[in-house]
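User: Can you help me understand a structure? I only have the sequence.
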Amino acid sequence: METIGIKALQTNPSLLGQTLDRGEYLLITRRGKPIGIAAAFDDRLLDLGFRKWIAVRSFQSGDLSLGQVARVFEKSREEMMGLLGELGVPIADYDLAEELETLGRLGRP
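Assistant: Let's start by predicting it. Here is the structure, written out as tokens:
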């Protein structure tokens, strides 16, 4: 999630369009305090409702943990993993090359 001050947004409104074009959301602040959120339209926004949609997006961007997003949905972690799978949201983020390197190091004496 990107953050922008209201003054910066007033002087460069194209930042809002650029963020929305990327399908991301933007936290808008005044003197460092959140005053609003701008979000690109997404069909899941209507299906899930804004609060749940923003929780899923926050999970995707790494701002919320699986446990935190599960609490928003009032589900167990296991139930939330199933729901995220249904929504096509990856649950684990890992680098295969890094994993193979780690496994290689573990196999060395």
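Now, to help you interpret it: The first strand starts at residue 2 and ends at 5. The mean pLDDT is 85. Let me know which part you'd like to focus on.
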